[in-house]
Design goal:
The protein contains eleven helices and ten strands. The protein is of the alpha/beta class. It folds into two domains: about 220 residues, 2-enoyl-CoA Hydratase, Chain A, domain 1 (Alpha-Beta Complex); about 50 residues, Lyase 2-enoyl-coa Hydratase, Chain  A, domain 2, CATH 1.10.12. Helix 1 links the parallel strand 3 and strand 4.
């Protein structure tokens, strides 16, 4: 069954066959994300995390772009904003509160137990770049362009960029992208190891659909355990990782899904996982 379940015009959630597609829908602004949308994304991700029927999450943008980052319109240039800027303390409190909303969305994305896929066309810059990189898998059209553009705006990294980039591509490459703030094409991003796949634009949808179906058909508990182990891998010792793996396997062996996988292997058929 297919359904659209979220009412916010600038964020759309579509469910079909255990695949949830979250679409940023502000194409006239290249899908820039304002404060209300950050709150909406956090709510959406938290709600998905609690749903056993949601097996995989696809994050994408409407139209020809993924996301141009935070919508900064209204933060500078107006008389009201200039007046607010005259009070340094008041201005800092305002921006700190705004950043907490960005951070909430980032944490909610990272806490999703389900596998996540970013489907990227056009620009993915600033927080939009890190929204894509924050997903477990990134599939890009050959039209895609990525940039940690913050320095060009007099800003430093956000939406987890300082945490994500070194883990994706190593520290020196991370500094290259962050300090120079250059825009790179999809093929260069692939060569760097920043993303997983680059495809012609007309092949992206079918490819992502195929990956999403494969993930949705997988064992949800085991996939969530694997995702958690990998996400924690750079923060633990080998001994701690082995202990975590043993605990995860103990949980897996207690599930119906592992028993189903064993039966399916013996019966030479594909397993049917239920998440139990």
């Amino acid at each position: 069954m297919a359904s659209i379940v979220y009412a916010m015009e600038t964020l759309q959630v579509f469910r079909e066959n255990s695949v949830v597609t979250v679409t940023i829908n502000q194409p006239e602004k290249k899908n820039a994300i304002n404060s209300a949308m950050w709150d909406g994304l956090a709510d959406i991700f938290r709600e998905i995390a609690s749903r056993a029927d949601d097996r995989v999450v696809v994050v994408t943008g409407a139209g020809n772009d993924f996301c141009s980052g935070a919508d900064l319109s209204g933060r500078s240039g107006s008389g009201a904003t200039r007046a607010a800027a005259s009070s340094g303390e008041q201005n800092q409190v305002h921006h700190l509160a705004a950043m907490r909303r960005v951070n909430d969305a980032c944490i909610a994305l990272q806490r999703l137990p389900q596998p996540t896929i970013a489907k990227v066309r056009g620009v993915a810059v600033g927080a939009g770049c890190n929204l894509a990189l924050g997903c477990d898998l990134v599939v890009a059209s050959s039209t895609a362009r990525f940039s940690e553009i913050f320095a060009r705006r007099g800003l430093s990294l956000d939406f987890g960029g300082s945490w994500l980039l070194p883990r994706r591509i190593g520290m020196h490459r991370a500094k290259e992208l962050a300090l120079l703030a250059e825009i790179i094409g999809a093929n260069e991003a692939l060569e760097m190891g920043l993303i997983n796949r680059v495809l012609p634009d007309n092949e992206v949808d079918a490819f992502v659909d195929n990956w999403a179906r494969k993930l949705a058909a997988g064992p949800p508990i085991a996939l969530a355990q694997t995702k958690r182990l990998l996400n924690n891998s750079l923060n633990v010792t080998l001994e701690e990782a082995l202990d975590d793996e043993a605990a995860a396997q103990t949980i897996n062996f207690a599930t119906n899904d592992t028993a189903e996988a064993m039966r399916a292997f013996i019966e030479k058929r594909e397993p049917k996982f239920t998440g139990r």
